[in-house]
């Protein structure tokens, strides 16, 4: 199911970030706490010692005391500076450890998400936003973490400055707070603008898609041959230009806010310094006091401005953290009913009044579709493009749920079984062949080296017709496919990859079989023999075969012709030919192409 928005307060987001950091690296929190204390302490050394040194110079001028004060200031200040830099460095490394753990969780969430989400733009946007919340240093997880510690340091420093300046009078404090508060308003507005613009934008997703496709060798051939490369580059450029414009508009808002801030600061500090000069001229403060108060006023204003910005930043970080938590919160699959144990085979499957439309598509692919696949039956599903064949398989494999009606396995609604136990039943081979850049054996078994049964892998590859191919490979079944992870990796043809997928289905040895046209890359005669021999290998298990080539599936017990989401005709190959309906017409048309073939079974029906 699609994730709902995660509503939480800033406090809850702070707790989430701190507790996550604490779980994955206590050191990250400890180091940043010490750095915060040291950073807050540093300015006071540079405030107090210059005052004492100046007063000594203008007063008793004791050389030993003078040298001692300078040495102490130097030692304290440089020790704190060194410690801060060192701890900040290792603290950041620890924080990255936490972020990487979160990125792992993000990737796991992508892989575990319901299949239907992978085709849903809303989910894809959420995924992008959550990733941005983790990868950005400014915003999101790291943004909140840094801002929180900066805010704590600011509060500690402010209380120190407050103690110093309040000796001049509370009105100065109030004046400083009032003027700095003006900046808050403008910085908050700029930050909100940035968040809204980035949130509404699908540009990052678009940019990522173009960049992924341009880097994916699988698209290389078509893009070159159809001269689509220039178009792609221009699309990429257009989207990066739009992103730049968006960034420019955001920067403009920040610039406006910064200009106003400078004007306010000029007015504020000008008036306070004039007042301090007045006090000095009238001998109400010493030179040392003058230096200390000007330093304290500048420090107070700057830290207060930083603290207010931190508060504004922290509030907007809450939104990023909400998105991150929405995406990362454990997916609770809707395990309907009582998670019944899977009954023992043989298996009969029934579609009962199934209606279904893809989310946000506004139309139904199936409306009250009903049919049975009896146990042991081989059912061929044929039909034109878009008839609904693959959608039917997606529903059957529980990649989607029917909007109404039910699909049953031996009379029980398939939604009542646990998802993983139900998936264990299926050996599937789909149209899209996705070879992994691992070894042949790992591709076939989908198990790691050392876990798979090498003998069984060999047998399955042999049965899928890849025995001779494997014997030519330097490392046999341990040869890598593709060169992403191994320079000695090999590239296989489309047909060979498809045969490997059949070997994978055989290796899994599921009780229910689906072949959704995985053989488009092999020639028609090879497809027929492949289907037929695959069929012999799977024994008497219930199986569904989809193909556009009607000659390939005519050995099946039954053939179901789908048209616009409905079952148009059903029967054996022979019965359907005798009926002389749509199936017979389609078969005749296709058979023309095999006229004169050595295989007489392909000859058109007289
Ligand atoms: N992810 C999706 N989102 C929205 N509509 C979809 C999606 N996938 C398929 N459809 C639509 O559902 C209908 C049935 O598609 P389906 O892929 O099941 O047909 P098919 O019979 O398998 O076609 P083909 O023979 O071309 O593979 C089509 O109209 C298609 O446009």
List the SSEs and their pairings:
Blueprint: H1 10-24, H2 26-58, H3 63-112, H4 121-135, H5 141-165, H6 170-200, H7 203-215, H8 220-225, H9 229-281, H10 287-328, E1 349-356, E2 366-373, E3 378-383, H11 389-396, E4 404-409, E5 412-413, H12 419-424, E6 426-429, H13 440-445, H14 454-463, H15 467-471, H16 494-508, E7 512-516, H17 524-537, E8 542-546, E9 558-563, E10 566-571, H18 573-579, H19 582-592
Parallel strand pairs: 3-8, 3-9, 6-7, 7-8
Antiparallel strand pairs: 1-2, 1-4, 4-5, 9-10
Helix pairs in contact: 1-2, 1-10, 2-3, 2-5, 2-10, 3-4, 4-10, 5-10, 6-9, 6-10, 7-9, 9-10, 14-16, 18-19
Adenosine-5'-triphosphate is lined by residues 119, 358, 361, 365, 383, 385-391.
Describe this structure in words.
The strands form two sheets. The protein has a six-stranded mixed sheet. The chain has helices at 10-24, 26-58, 63-112, 121-135, 141-165, 170-200, 203-215, 220-225, 229-281, 287-328, 389-396, 419-424, 440-445, 454-463, 467-471, 494-508, 524-537, 573-579, 582-592, and strands spanning 349-356, 366-373, 378-383, 404-409, 412-413, 426-429, 512-516, 542-546, 558-563, 566-571. The chain folds into three domains: 10-201 and 236-328, ABC transporter transmembrane region fold (Up-down Bundle), CATH 1.20.1560; 349-433 and 509-602, P-loop containing nucleotide triphosphate hydrolases (Rossmann fold); 436-491, no CATH class. It has 606 residues and is an alpha/beta fold. Helices cover 60% and strands 9% of the residues. α2 (26-58) packs antiparallel against α3 (63-112), α5 runs antiparallel to α10 (287-328) and α14 (454-463) crosses α16. A hairpin with a 2-residue loop joins β4 and β5. Bound molecules: adenosine-5'-triphosphate. Adenosine-5'-triphosphate binds at residues 119, 358, 361, 365, 383, 385-391.
